[in-house]
Specification:
Oligomer: single chain
Structural class: mainly alpha
GO cellular component, one term: plasma membrane
Subcellular location: Cell membrane
Helix content: over 70%
Number of helices: 12
Distance between the termini: 30 Å
Keywords: Cell membrane, Membrane, Transmembrane, Transmembrane helix
Pfam families: EamA
Protein name: DMT family transporter
Radius of gyration: 19 Å
Length: 294
């Protein structure tokens, strides 16, 4: 928040912000299976709108006491982040209608090596050698993930999920771009509300109807709304002191948790897809290695 005293740098490799990000990464990994099951009963836009609308309502009590002081910068930050979340999560949710949760999680992890590349384009920060190696490993991993069914091409679900990684990478960059210069509670509420409003507004032009009332959809969306509010609040808080690249390294554990949860639920990916997933995770880790002097 504005006026907050800077935190004393910790000598530990992992401090409280990093531990908080590790915790939400575990929660994040569990969301793939929940969404995959809910897509049997709902369209993606309605589900995303309900999920993030619930998250916005949960975040509102934290934002309400300070909402009157919202600035133009915070409106802009919340809107930009919200657009990234809407695009990324809608495409990812759409893809989960046709692909297993484990496959979705491994493909989604490819956003990590994309962050340095997009930082080069958006923020003019030249990627390091490790970033390019990470991109190469991620590309090879994605081919292996798709190969079991579609040869060397991505199916519709895989393609939608892959496109979503661009938006998710931009979301990470936007959060880091505004972190420390805006009020966390206000921006979190704005970005969640923008995501929900965009999803509901796009239902009409997309021709998506409101599904019949289904308790699986309602409980899944509301439960994910609670988790989403917590995840976004922690991301915005932690990334005030954790760099985008360090944060993405922590997020590398997300597909591993998702794959484990999917395996427990019955997902059985072919060996080539598992190898591809391992390459994607390796890409996440390698992209954060610093060769030579820092």
């Amino acid at each position: 928040m504005h006026g907050a005293a800077p935190e004393t740098p910790s000598r530990l490799m992992i401090g409280r912000p990093e531990l908080a990000l590790i915790g939400i990464t575990l929660l994040w990994g569990g969301t793939f299976l929940i969404v995959h099951q809910a897509m049997r009963h709902s369209g993606p836009l309605f589900f995303v709108g309900l999920r993030f609308g619930t998250a916005a309502l949960i975040a509102l009590p934290l934002a309400l006491p300070v909402l009157r002081g919202v600035t133009r910068r915070e409106w802009l930050a919340g809107t930009m982040i919200g657009c990234g979340i809407f695009t990324g999560y809608t495409l990812q949710t759409w893809g989960l209608r046709t692909i297993p949760s484990s496959t979705s999680a491994f493909i989604t992890a490819a956003y990590v090596p994309l962050v340095p590349i997009l930082q080069w384009i958006v923020l003019r920060r030249r990627p390091r050698l490790a970033s390019w190696i990470g991109v190469a490993l991620a590309f090879a991993g994605l081919l292996l993930i798709a190969a079991p069914r579609d040869g060397l091409s991505l199916g519709r679900g895989e393609a939608l999920t892959l496109i979503s990684t661009l938006a998710i990478a931009l979301e990470i960059i936007f959060i880091s771009l505004w972190a420390g210069r805006v009020d966390v509670a206000r921006v979190t509420f704005i970005q969640l509300a923008v995501t929900s409003l965009l999803a509901f507004a796009c239902m009409v032009p997309a021709g998506e109807a409101v599904p019949p009332i289904n308790w699986i959809v309602m409980l899944s969306a509301c439960g994910l709304g609670l988790m989403t509010a917590l995840i976004q609040l922690v991301m915005n808080w932690a990334q005030r002191s954790v760099s985008a690249t360090r944060a993405t390294l922590i997020y590398a554990g997300e597909p591993v948790w998702a794959g484990l949860i999917g395996w427990i639920a019955g997902d059985r990916l072919p060996a080539s897809a598992l190898l591809g997933g391992a390459l994607v995770v390796a890409a996440v880790i390698v992209s954060e290695i610093r060769f030579g002097k820092p």
